[in-house]
Amino acid sequence: MKAKKYVVLMAVFGFVLSACGEKSASSQSGETSTDIPAAEASSSVEEDQNEEREIVNIRDTWVTRSLSVDAKGKSVGIEAFAKAFGKAYGKYMPNKVMYNNLTGNQKANEADELMRMFVVDNQAKNGYLKCELPTEYDWQTTCCYWKRNNGHSLVAFWLAESHEGKDYTDILLAFYDFDPATGTMKPEPKLAQKVDVAMKRYDAYTVNLPAEGKDIEVVGHKADLENDNYSNTDYLFRWNGYDFRMEEVK
Fold first, then answer.
1. Pairing state between β 169-179 and 184-187
2. How far is CA 70 from CA 35, 66, 80, 82, 179, in A?
3. How far apart are the first and last CA of the chain?
4. Which of 30, 59, 129, 241 has the fewest Cβ atoms within 10 angstroms?
């Protein structure tokens, strides 16, 4: 596990160097396959890369789109939330594999050589689900949820993608409030922004949603490129029944 994290971090810091100090995790948020805003693409090569970067597409739009959850009269859990998200943003491959797995369409996954390699860790009893390509590079969607003290649920999704030969790492942390009365997941971008703002002092960060327990682990990564030195700082975003408070792990 440590080896995988190290290789992923090297990919992250490779992006940091190539981007002249820009963070790979621009302001957190995003979903749905839409055209990328005509930001400041410095070259046609960058534009071509962005067309393939589905997390960038999702980040640009998720904050404006609520998602309908199909519970079919059953108690709503992580599978229903993951299906709603996967259906909405199925162009991102981990989401597509996850959605096919949850809807019984395994044949679609088996028919594609790359999709066959993904592993779905479905811990529905714990309210946790992860779909990832189990290699030294990161390509995943992870999700979980918490019961809020107002009768709603808070749902979180973490997307990350870094590959050998690509000089970028894309990440996305998204939160939704699920109202059982309406069956709708409504975006809560302020929570994602809370994490993003706290991590601005670092070159990059990773998020570990809880498969057990209720707290989110966030790791800030610093790179001293001149001395070839890399350091990590761990934080916990502790669940308080409605959202989170941050504390550094010492």
1. antiparallel
2. 27, 13, 6, 11, 12
3. 22
4. 241
